[in-house]
Amino acid sequence: MGNRGHREPEKSPSKGKRPNCGERLPAQAKKLLSPGGHFQGSHCSRVGPLFPLAEGGERERRTPYLLLIRHPILKVGHLGQLWPSPAPARGRPGRKPRDGITAGAVGRTRPETPTEKAPLTLFLNSLTPKFYVALTGTSSLISGLIFIFEWWYFHKHGTSFIEQVSVSHLRPLMGGTESSISEPGSPSSNRESETSRQNLSECKVWRNPLNLFRGAEYRRYTWVTGKEPLTYYDMNLSAQDHQTFFTCDTDFLRPSDTVMQKAWRERNPPARIKAAYQALELNNDCATAYVLLAEEEATTIVDAERLFKQALKAGETIYRRSQQCQHQSPQHEAQLRRDTNVLVYIKRRLAMCARKLGRIREAVKIMRDLMKEFPPLTMLNIHENLLESLLELQAYADVQAVLAKYDDISLPKSAAICYTAALLKTRTVSDKFSPETASRRGLNTAEINAVEAIHRAVEFNPHVPKYLLEMKSLILPPEHILKRGDSEAIAYAFFHLQHWKRIEGALNLLQCTWEGTFRMIPYPLEKGHLFYPYPSCTETADRELLPTFHHVSVYPKKELPFFIHFTAGLCSSTAMIALLTHQFPEIMGVFAKAASSSFILIVLLQRKSDRKL
């Protein structure tokens, strides 16, 4: 740049003549112009000084130039300022610039101009198609990996990982709360609390009343198939149950009970069996040691029954001794409760052994005596064992009497109660039932009652019909079940399928009603009415209770989460763009440059509008 004293005075352009873009521009501005006098990448319509000339024909050296830049694709004009140098301008004294803006003020507050974005534009213009292929290919690969992980996580846990992380971690950080809160005394809040309490009780994991023997049944299955029928979660719940039923605070008073308390906490079966033998060496009348050996070491039902009889003899002695001392202290009362639980457990397992060995009437007698002697222990669901034995005897009148006592709204429902009630009503009409005849003449009163009972049972647990109709293969039932879940359906169908097959036409009526319920075949029941609102917490617990080789039945069917659709679409679109860029690099390069230029222009216009506001 030359010295100001040796610079020739510039002449102002003649009036009415359109100036050339290359005239009277500093060297820095001329670098941005092409040899034809046009702005690189755009069209320059007018170039002129922003402020009037100084006295004597000289222009202030720091005066900016105006450029009207037209976008080559969008055909949109943009008015910008071309600053010759970043140094601050000096205002001309004695005269006001136009529009009320002084030269000194403009020099001090230099705005961001489009020409300052030239390096970014040049960088975008210099990108090759290989860069866009690599960019879109990498995006497609990353989104594909996220899609595969989301798909696997959804099928394993039944929910979206991204959605779960967003709700669990991001929402509390953002201060998310419930949108609406009901008043405590409002009817809606009361209904919600009742529904939540009902769902909480139904989503509770219960001890399977018909659970098999580990040594005589579960282990034999492992020997034959090489598969583990019980999950770690299920066995851990059983260990907690054993500690609750068979231990108390006074175990330290008896060395054998102290050893058994450690045995119930052992994870390794051989270690538990070894501890049971150690307890028997300390006390030959340790009932819980015989219970553990009968459950896990006995390989046949006969051996298990023999050990349970020894446990019964020792348990009755300890129980009578505890009854005499129960009022001496609270510790003795806790010891009596423990000894009562041990005695009831032993008698119940003896009844199940008799049932498996074909002595059904003996099993029924033991169960009836238990229910009379210990009526408060309804939580053990001994009546479900009794129902299954009575159905095997085909004593349907006794079954109806038991249902009349336990099919109460105050007691927790179960698949055994609901489907047994449906079976009894089906038995009266199933032998003469025909779908063609029923659709032609309609259903009579008895058939309507049977269909309604099946409808209630299916709504309570919709997983059962697939197992009763043998549409899904059965596996060994777990030691714990979830009410209204797939695990309860397996446990019920495993023992009660033979009772449905014994009654002629029962499965046919079940199939017609079940298809009418869920496939919208007309039947004379009110559509959409739910006797038992179905909870949404069954799938996760069933996946933990049932082994991995079993496909867990899910109801209601869940739709794929949004993020699975989003990642799949993102992966497909980026892969398609990468393929097109690789095949047609020139065309896709033009589109990419046009898109980037348009984006930059939109950002600049938005910034300018924000400054004006």
UniProtKB/TrEMBL annotation:
Record field: compositional bias (Basic and acidic residues): 1-13
GO cellular component: membrane
Protein origin, superkingdom: Eukaryota
Bilayer topology: Multi-pass membrane protein
Keywords linked to the UniProt accession: Membrane, Transmembrane, Transmembrane helix
Stated family: Belongs to the ST7 family.
Name used for this protein in its record: Suppressor of tumorigenicity 7 protein-like
Organism: Pteropus vampyrus (Large flying fox)
